[in-house]
Amino acid sequence: xxxxxxxxxxxxxxxxxxxGYFAPRGASAFHSAFGKRCRPATSLPIFEGxxxxxxxxxxxxxxxRVYVISPPPLSLSPEGIVAFDPAWPGLPPRRxxxxxxxxxxxxxxxxxxxxxVLINGGEFLRADSREQAARAAAEIAFLKAVxxxxxxxxxxxxxxxxxxxxxxRERLAASEKAGANLSFLSNLLLxxxxxxxxxxxxxxxxxxMWLPALATLxxxxxxxxxxxWRAHRRLYPNGRTGQRGLLLLRSLAPPALIRAPDSxxxxxxxxxxxxxxxxxxxDRDAFEEFAATTLRDLAHPLPPATPKExxxxxxxxxxxxxxxxxxxxxxxxxxxxxxxxxPTPRDGKALSCCPRCRAEYLxxxxxxxxxxxxxxxxxxxxxxx
Length: 385
Ligand SMILES: [Zn+2]
Description:
This protein is an alpha+beta fold. The protein is built from twelve helices and 14 strands.
């Protein structure tokens, strides 16, 4: 293998690694390989570990899109907060949660150190990322500052905002508009780096083409970086300039710069509930399935559904999240009650199923071997449960 071929092999491996993105366990990830329509991202078990899941975006043009939404392990009520979220629509086991409880009157200073949210100087919860910790801390500090009589309305407002599908669609449209040029330039860079440069080197020789190739690469890199900076500032106006500078620094190498559109879309929908993001990103059938999985998990959470202390707070918050997700589903033309109904059997011999994961069993009663929840009778084809 010549030196040039070795260099290209290294570049290719570097680029394929850049196509990987990490999502915390429990986060919802959506991606599209080619068009705008996304699907929930799946993963291979070998890339799934305790801290999270490594997935790969489409490496070929037009590069596709990736989105990750990871709600913090936090329940809120007018009484107080609990570092516990019963929601876990994925496979068990659920992530570890501290279950710490604090009434609003006991909450003083709220700060973050790396992924930890500190309250009164002690660690209250450990988030999946710095950004998630910052969002959880900001929400706690905001609600703490609200007058106690208005706290319930403020929590409801936050939930309404997080489940606002119209706003999610607007956010998506804004990202498509702001990121269009970057997407075009990134695709151009991919063609230039992996097709045009090696092909011209093969046809005309390296000594003839290296200078024009280098000049084109530099111009395209500069245009890409400038476009990334502008698009990031438009989509994340509250982002710190230092963080944006770091993003640009990380994108200096061309293989990393090709994946720059991912840095715009990955955290794009973080302010929304995954079901609201799913309504904006998925087609109708995929959205219905995603909403059904989430609502079933909310109605039949993995045990323990509540921590030892603060059970009332977690139950209140779960009820309010369910209310807002039900409203969202109805607005999208889906009856949430229908999603929770016992299904008719896929296997003609099955007698019962798990109300959460829908695995079917040849038993009248028992517990789901995955979810440890009591089985429910399946409906007969006549419609009776
Ligand atoms: Zn189950």
